[in-house]
Amino acid sequence: MIVPSIDILGGRAVQLRGGRHPVLEVGNPEALAEKLSRAGEIAVVDLDAALGKGSNTEIIRRIIAKHPCRVGGGIRSKELALEYLDLGARAVMIGTKASPEFLADFPAERLIAALDTNKEKIMVEGWTKETGADLFARIEELKPYVGGFLVTTIDREGEMNGFDFERAEAIVKAASGRRVTFAGGASGGKEGAAQIARLDALGADVQAGTALATGALSLARAFSAPLSSDRPDGLWPTTVCDEGGRLLGLVYSDLESLDAAFESGRGVYKSR
User: Fold this and answer.
1) Who's near 1: CB < 8 A, 6+ residues apart?
2) DSSP character for 13?
3) What are the residue ranges spanned by the domains of the chain?
């Protein structure tokens, strides 16, 4: 599954390369959330808070009120974590403060431990401080307290050069059923979609920002990557529901119709 990511710095949506340098300003984070959430849950990261240089809390509050999302970046107090959860965030991503003592006060299913790695060592405080802690040791320590892990490979962030699948498989196995999301490495086009499908088959998700923001990977291709069809025409059966979740009917979709639907925000389907 794809989890579109919005990184907010100075009130604007940006993308980083190598964990440090903004390489692309994407624009208004609220407008971006409106578009990306058409594919489901999004990830919203407060880079200013992560770096200890301010916060974008008001923007994040407005996004939570409108869209399904997980929130992270600089959540270092229980009060802020609780505020985001009470506002309706699906989960909070805790990095620097991720410890059994901090996490134990929250429902595990709404916690994601954010493990930012550089050469398998954990980095904290907005990727600026190396802890020396081993990735797999941290997974073992924290997995009783969380519902999932976000594993970011910092040196691959923004590079769009793919994932280490042998490593990914080992991480998923170590997580013992907690859903793992991988960030740093999502690439574009058919190759990027194949990577999403391969990780989905392992039981993992992909959090992507740069590949989507640059258009290298379309939202429709990312969303549909894990889908398969047993129909000769390759169409995907699609259920249509109203805003209350009531089933309205069965239609069919393909990549072209999904792309039109995500771009327009309207239901667009494929005629058989």
Assistant:
1) 40, 196, 200, 205, 206, 226
2) E
3) 2-224, 228-272
What sign has the CA pseudo-torsion 217, 223, 228, 229? negative
Write down the pLDDT at residue 22: 59
Which three-class secondary structure state does DSSP give residue 257?
A: helix
The reported pTM is 0.90
* pLDDT average per 10 residues of sequence, the chain (272 residues): 95 78 81 95 95 95 98 96 98 95 97 87 73 88 97 70 87 96 86 94 93 90 95 94 90 96 93 74
Domain 2-224 has CATH 1.10.3660.10: no
Q: Which residues are catalytic?
A: 7, 116
3-class SS of residue 200: helix
Task: Please report the pLDDT score of residue 18 as a whole number.
Answer: 58
Nearest to 235 by CA among 262, 255, 205: 255
CA distances from 182 to 1, 188, 196, 257 (A): 11, 15, 10, 28
The bridge status of strand 42-46 relative to strand 21-27 is unpaired
Q: pLDDT at position 20, please?
A: 57
State the Cα–Cα distance between residues 97 and 267, nearest whole angstrom.
Answer: 42
- Count Cα neighbours of 55 within 13 Å in the Cβ-side half-sphere: 11
Strand partners, 189: none
3-state class percentages of the chain: helix first, strand second, coil last, to nearest 5: 35, 30, 35
Cβ atoms of 161 and 186 closer than 8 Å = no
pLDDT in the model for residue 161: 67
Beta bridge partners of 173: none
The answer to whether 168 touches 199, Cβ cutoff 8 Å, is yes
User: 213 burial class (0-12, 13-18, 19+ CB within 10 angstroms)?
Assistant: buried
